[in-house]
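Entry
Fold in token form

___
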Amino acid sequence: MTGLFNLIPSLSQSIDLANYDTLAQELATIQQTGSKRIALLGSRHVPLTHQHLIEMMSYALVLSGNHLLTSGATGTNSAAIRGAMRADPNLLTVILPQSLERQPQESRQQLEQVMHLVENSTNDQMSLAEASSLCNQEIVSRCQQLICFAFHDSHTLLQTCQQAEDQRKVVTLFYFD
């Protein structure tokens, strides 16, 4: 027992004081019992069973009073939208990388039902990859926490997670592979 107490002063001396505020802020966000702004993003290519799990997760998050932010793509984002819409459509914000007209036909019907839909028509002339990257940045800037479902080669999503960490957001990353 004495050995443990001898370690504590050396550990506390090695903590970078600049990171102490960051650590305190992240711990406060994790422990926060009130509602949070949670971004849920992920791959378009998701097995149906995983989509059901994502839908249940978003349903539970919104039912708990959290505000969910996502984008409008098929797969992960579509499952998140379904769950949030079942729980409380007013606690869902969907931010599109481009205008609604540029979204795939299979997504439009669902997106037209979203109360808080943000279109980025100024990005219509960009490639979808460029517009998606900007869209993800906007989503991360609005959230306190990011939950992401990706593959190890999901470059845009992994870059988004890194940007969120750089902004001191709480990031939970699930890999499909």
